Amino acid sequence: MNKRDIVDFWANCHDGAQLLAFCAEIGMPRLLLTKAAIRCASRALALISGVQQPQAAIRAAEKWVKHPTAENAVAAANAAWAAETVTTAGEPGAVSATVDAARSAAGEIMHSPHAASMYLTLGRSYAALAAHDTARAFIANGCDRDKAKRKCADDVRQIIHLEDIAAELDG
């Protein structure tokens, strides 16, 4: 992909998961990936109530973004694990997808290089999965599929700018 193709892709892609997978593939810093994943997953939190673990996972991830210490990374990993243990069987799809989005947003912080390479092989990162799951939550709540994906893409572009991508590619 040349720079012109990248500019075109970044401006015209309407899928936040694809944007974040691209960012992970080029080695965008985990801090930015996590911040974008949080933005996407936070949007889905408004769809559910009464399930605390996804909100706790997002709060823990936000704390790590502000203060990226080992202690906050472990807290985010624990919150992601707690969100993963939420039983969503029989719950509406929006609840299940929101739990997944929050877990993935917090999970972006701690996944190992080995896990990262596995996700990248699949064209995914935890951040990309958060965007994908957020779109799933909105679709389950009756939102148009393309509109849901565009919301996440817009969220990603508010956090990660074309200048960030250019700097990563030039670095």
Explained architecture:
The chain is 77% helix and 0% strand. The protein has 171 residues and is mainly α. The chain is flat. About 7% of the residues have low confidence.
In short:
Helices cover 77% and strands 0% of the residues. The chain has 171 residues and is an all-alpha fold.
The proportion of residues forming helix, as a percent range, comes to over 70%
Estimated share of beta-strand residues: under 5%
Order of helices and strands: HHHHHHHHHH
| Low-pLDDT runs | 112-123
Largest sheet: none
Assign the structural class, choosing from mainly alpha, mainly beta, alpha/beta, alpha+beta, or little secondary structure: mainly alpha
Number of helical runs? 10
Q: What value does the average pLDDT take?
A: 82
Q: Quick one: how many beta strands?
A: 0
Taking the alpha carbons of the first and last residues, their distance comes to 16 Å
Q: What is the 3D form?
A: flat
Q: What is Rg?
A: 15 Å
Write the layout of secondary structure elements.
Layout: H1 3-12, H2 16-25, H3 30-45, H4 52-66, H5 70-84, H6 93-110, H7 113-121, H8 126-140, H9 145-159, H10 162-170
Helix pairs in contact: 2-3, 2-8, 2-9, 3-4, 3-6, 3-8, 3-9, 4-5, 4-6, 5-6, 6-8, 8-9
